Amino acid sequence: MDVVAACRAFVAVSGHGSFTSGAAAAGIPQSVASRRIAALEEHFGARLFDRSSRAVRLTSFGQDMLPSARRLVDLADAMVDDAERARLRPLRVAVPEICPPRRLADLVVAARRQRIHLEVRPAGPPERERLCRTLEVGAGIVAVPEATAAWRVPLGLAARTPFPAPTVFLETLRSGRSRTQARRRILIQPEDDVAHLRDPLTRAGQSAGLAPSQVTVAPSLVDAAAAALGSPDLLLCSRQQAEDFALHWCPLADPRLMRGYDVAAGVREDLDQLSTVLYADIAHCLGASDGHPSPTEDSPPGSPSTGDPT
Questions:
Q1: Contact of 224 with 245, CB cutoff 8 Å
Q2: Where is this region: Disordered (predicted)?
Q3: Taking the model in full, what pTM does it have?
Q4: What does the alpha-carbon distance between residue 168 and residue 201 come to, in Å, rounded to a whole number?
Q5: By the 8 A CB rule, do 12 and 22 touch?
Q6: pLDDT, tens digit, for every residue of 26-78?
Q7: What are the tens digits of pLDDT across the range 119-131?
Q8: Which end of the chain has the lower number of beta carbons within 10 A, N or C?
Q9: How far apart are CA 78 and CA 73, in angstroms?
Q10: Rounded Cα distance, 12 and 26, in Å
């Protein structure tokens, strides 16, 4: 016997003084209400209603049991409400602040279709790690080396004018003999100011003979993009970002740089939802077509350029 359903019928009939009206209020047929109440009476071993007249009246036993039945029904309703709130609990996720707002909105919509209530919090790499560590968010899309990444985004250089070759060689950025020739900088945005991206590029620049000031970290993505738009400087970025700023994009010949992202989460369920259910949607948000880009996407064929890359 479903005690909660029987008590719900008992409370409804007692409140309306009629099996017909009470059953209608409970959303069940009158015959079902009668069977449930009869089963409850059999379970307790005593009558709940006096059926000797046309009116349905509570017996003394029924009057004593009614408060408990109401509490049970109220508790069951409260459990349903609690379950709904728990199911729709917000999953706060720290995401890269470079993700375009529209793509973040698409991610939230896709999550809701899967009955996942996301709250995204854009932040830079160090802040995302801190938010995960202090449990201010339930999960984070954190920066990791390419080898351990779930999502990968190829990086290249972006400039205001087209590149003459399919790849850029750092040697072509060396200053000429003329001291008046400006040294073109490679600007690293904060999202890529992580050891596994910054350090290989810095070492490669030194090996190619670039001045230390030619590989530098910009205060923000906007500052870096503004420099690339208003000067010969180059922005280290993804193809998607270059398109957003209407810049020309070209991959580096060496070093081959790739953003890597993975999920950090305190609860296994949250980890699974982000890394499996929403995998493709997060890839779209990050600008990664899939988790394993092909070599042709990362390193298009080409030969060294001997002139100015723009």
A1: no
A2: 288-310
A3: 0.67
A4: 13
A5: yes
A6: 899 999 999 999 999 999 999 999 887 677 889 999 999 999 999 999 999 88
A7: 999 999 999 999 9
A8: N
A9: 9
A10: 6
> Which residue type does 78 have?
A
DSSP for residue 275? I
H helical segments located in 17-152: 19-26, 30-44, 60-87, 101-113, 125-133
What is the per-residue pLDDT across 261-285, written as a single tens digit (0 to 9) for each?
999 998 888 899 999 999 999 999 9
Q: Residues 37, 13: contact at Cβ < 8 Å?
A: yes
Alpha-carbon gap, residue 171 to 91, rounded angstroms: 47
Q: Which of 177, 85, 136 is nearest to 266 (CA)?
A: 136
For the chain, list the domains and their CATH numbers: 3-86 (1.10.10.10), 91-146+260-286 (3.40.190.10), 154-259+292-298 (3.40.190.10)
Q: Which amino acid is at 98?
A: I
Of the candidates 161, 171, 300, the one whose C-alpha atom is nearest the C-alpha of residue 231 is 161
- The three-class DSSP label of residue 219 is coil
User: Encoding tokens for residue 139?
Assistant: 């999960």
Task: Tell me the H-state helices in 213-289.
Answer: 221-230, 239-244, 268-272, 279-286
Q: Can you tell me whether residue 289 is helix, strand or coil? A: coil
